[in-house]
Amino acid sequence: MRLKKLFLICATMSIGFISCNKDDDDETPTFEERDRGEQAIEDDERLVEFLSTHFYNYEEFQNPSEGFDYEIEFDTISGENSEKTSLLESEDLMVKSVTRDDVEYNLYILKVREGEGDRPTMADSTLVAYTGQLMNQTVFNDNMVSPVWFDLPGYIILDANGRPGRAGGVLPGFSESLVEFKSSTGYDVSPDNTIEWENDYGIGAVFVPSGLAYFSSPPSGSGIPGYAPLIFKINLYRTAEADHDKDGVPSWMEDLDNDGNLFNDNTDGDNFPNHSDADDDGDGTPTRNEIVIQEDGTLELTDTNNDGTPDYLDPDFFK
């Protein structure tokens, strides 16, 4: 696998109520989304049931044999495996509370190995090998051999018609899990240009309720049913600090209210949140010209008029 920055643009999830217009005869079927709060409870019950009745190959990770592939495998607790420790009881399982659309979800993250390298923020890009599967362990996407660069938050760009639209981004449950791991500390490039990673990258799995996945609108042809909780096995190889608008301010710093959402930070109130806006305060002077980047890479946010607001966020100061 070549080390490339290939950013996967994910399909945008449909949010809210989706319906078909009725005709005069009232014969056209109407679709009404399920209540997100009720679905969250149902999904959590399904996830807990899976976690209670399955285990992962923890013994192989505890005492890896020569040639062990360091891949997570799930199996049912029964028969000769009846004494195994369930995923729910595993000391490697953490439960993360995530609120989205005013609904609180339980995100179950299996941290088999945290990793030793850099930890990504919610605003960064990550190189990830992963397998996506349904609760019955049917695989719908397998990229364990060929890792993919993911732009975690996404950003706003103009489409072919000059209208602002969202590009990039991953499922909320996927992003919320990746920030709990660290990348590898390094790699070697073989003569055939394949990559050999240091064996200290993050390894884990995440069990995602549908409200933090595709909810009622999975991608067409994906094989994912509506309202399906999902499971992702992940290896985090590398992380890169993102600057989506190339203005010199890392995207993680553009989350001004520190709520983990880059899209509600918009200083000048235009169609572009700060991390997608090369002129954050809309004063006509690009952000890049209102900050100072030192030779060592240190960022200085100047405040020329000493009003407590950095120049690049202050529409009352411009050059």
Could you name the key traits of this structure?
single chain, 319 residues, mainly beta, Chitinase A, domain 3, 2 domains, 6-stranded antiparallel beta sheet, two-stranded antiparallel ribbon, 3 helices, disordered N terminus
Walk me through what this model shows.
It catalyses: [protein]-peptidylproline (omega=180) = [protein]-peptidylproline (omega=0). InterPro entries: PPIase_dom_sf, PPIase_FKBP_dom, TSP_type-3_rpt. This protein is 9% helix and 26% strand. The N terminus is likely disordered.
SSE order and pairing:
Layout: H1 36-53, E1 54-56, H2 58-62, E2 74-76, E3 93-100, E4 103-113, E5 125-133, E6 139-151, E7 155-158, E8 164-167, H3 172-178, E9 187-189, E10 195-197, E11 202-208, E12 230-240, E13 292-293, E14 299-300
Antiparallel strand pairs: 1-2, 3-4, 4-11, 5-6, 5-12, 7-8, 9-10, 11-12, 13-14
Summarize the structure.
By secondary structure, the protein is mainly beta. It is built from three helices and 14 strands.
**Judging from the principal axes of the Cα atoms, what is the shape?**
globular
Radius of gyration: 22 Å
Our estimate of the beta-strand percent is: 25-35%
The third-level CATH topology of the largest domain is Chitinase A, domain 3
User: What is the CATH C-level name of the largest domain?
Assistant: Alpha Beta
Structure class: mainly beta
CATH architecture verdict of the largest domain: Roll
Order of helices and strands: HEHEEEEEEEHEEEEEE
Query: Reading side by side through the largest sheet, how are the strands ordered?
Result: 3-4-11-12-5-6
Number of separate strands: 14
Number of helices: 3
Main sheet properties: 6 strands, antiparallel
Q: List unreliable stretches of 5+ residues.
A: 1-26
Catalytic activity: [protein]-peptidylproline (omega=180) = [protein]-peptidylproline (omega=0)
Keywords: Isomerase, Rotamase
Enzyme class: isomerase
InterPro entries: PPIase_dom_sf, PPIase_FKBP_dom, TSP_type-3_rpt
